[in-house]
Specification:
By secondary structure, the protein is α+β, with helices and mostly antiparallel strands. 15% of the residues lie in helices and 36% in strands.
């Protein structure tokens, strides 16, 4: 059965504040600035303060604990002072809680596009390729060509999470990995320190562990007694059972004034004055998705919780009834607006 696709929708100008992106409705707190070393450490020497660990759910260092990373503003990890070591920064943009991009110029004036993700989920094959080191962390480096590079600093091994930097320099650009390593090292060092964090508004789900907030009793009617959790990043979790899947995701998005997150969306009453917007999707793997709005600012940028129930076509299941029951079961455990 296919894994649900992770989505993140751009929330426009509401994501830009004081030159650093923040999530919609998420104010930022100021932390002391730290000096970042310009050199890149990619030796095989392991930082003694960062010991690899394969314990389930345990980061390689407490600084990289998921509950801490959920509140870190990713744009603050690649601030202007760091980007200026490799070129001329441009405007920041962000499409999710944990992603920040800067489409800038390198020191020769050529294209240098950088996208940083924190809490990035690695595959087992990617983890096995983490044979180098950067800032005391295992490093996986993938160079697709001379102008495209993916760098992943492993912060947790089971499940595997990383600080990931995607670098591209265009068809006529310079080599991508070298400036990427310098930026990634600086970002990891900032993350180990006291990085700028979000100040969530009332009702924001940004701090919630999506796997922990769902009780088995909310899953068993569709998936049976022993559903298998599958976390993806820091804000998404899915569970699989016999011929069906369920998923919860917290994300930032533009809130449509009519509630039509999808052309098929219909409004549903979840009780207690709570409304949701559901859409039935009759695809090869039919699903019903239900969106609950948790925060919204004056520019209609906000945060949502999206519930999904899906299954094989032959599975006898009222997907929309099931997704409503799923949402009603989880709703009391979410931060209240």
């Amino acid at each position: 059965m296919p894994r649900f696709r992770a989505t993140a929708v751009v929330a426009a100008a509401a994501l830009l504040m004081a030159g650093c992106a923040t999530g919609p409705g998420l104010a930022k707190t100021n932390s002391p600035r730290r000096t970042v070393q310009a050199g890149v450490d990619t030796t095989t020497t392991t930082d003694p303060s960062t010991k690899p660990s394969s314990d389930p759910g345990k980061p390689v260092d407490p600084a990289f604990a998921s509950e801490r990373l959920r509140l870190v503003n990713p744009c603050a990890l690649i601030e202007k002072d760091l980007l200026q070591t490799v070129g001329t920064p441009s405007r920041y943009s962000s499409s999710s809680y944990t992603r920040c991009s800067n489409y800038m110029k390198d020191k020769s004036g050529k294209t240098l596009n950088l996208t940083l993700d924190i809490g990035y989920s690695l595959t087992s094959s990617e983890l096995k390729k983490a044979t180098k080191q950067v800032a005391g962390l295992k490093l996986a480096e993938q160079k697709l060509n001379n102008t495209s590079c993916f760098l992943s600093a492993v912060t947790q091994e089971n499940p595997a999470l990383a600080v990931r930097l995607q670098v591209s320099t265009g068809t006529e650009g310079n080599e991508a990995c070298e400036p990427g390593l310098k930026v990634l090292e600086g970002a990891v060092r900032k993350l180990k320190g006291n990085p700028q964090r979000y100040t969530p508004p009332k009702g924001s789900p940004v701090e919630v562990d999506p796997c922990a907030v769902v009780e088995k009793s909310a899953l068993s009617p569709v998936l049976g007694a022993s559903p298998r959790p599958l976390p993806f990043g820091l804000h998404q979790c899915s569970w699989s059972g016999q011929s069906a899947q369920m998923q919860i995701e917290f994300r930032t998005t533009r809130i449509p004034k009519d509630g039509k997150f999808d052309t098929r969306s219909v409004e549903v009453d979840l009780g207690g004055g709570v409304k949701g917007y559901q859409a039935l999707k009759e695809t090869a793997y039919p699903s019903c998705e239900l969106v609950l709005v948790r925060t919204k600012d004056a520019s209609d940028a906000g945060e949502i919780v999206e519930f999904t129930v899906a299954g094989l076509k032959e599975k006898q299941l009222d997907r929309c009834a099931a997704v409503q029951a799923f949402a009603k079961a989880v709703l009391p455990a979410l931060p209240q607006a």
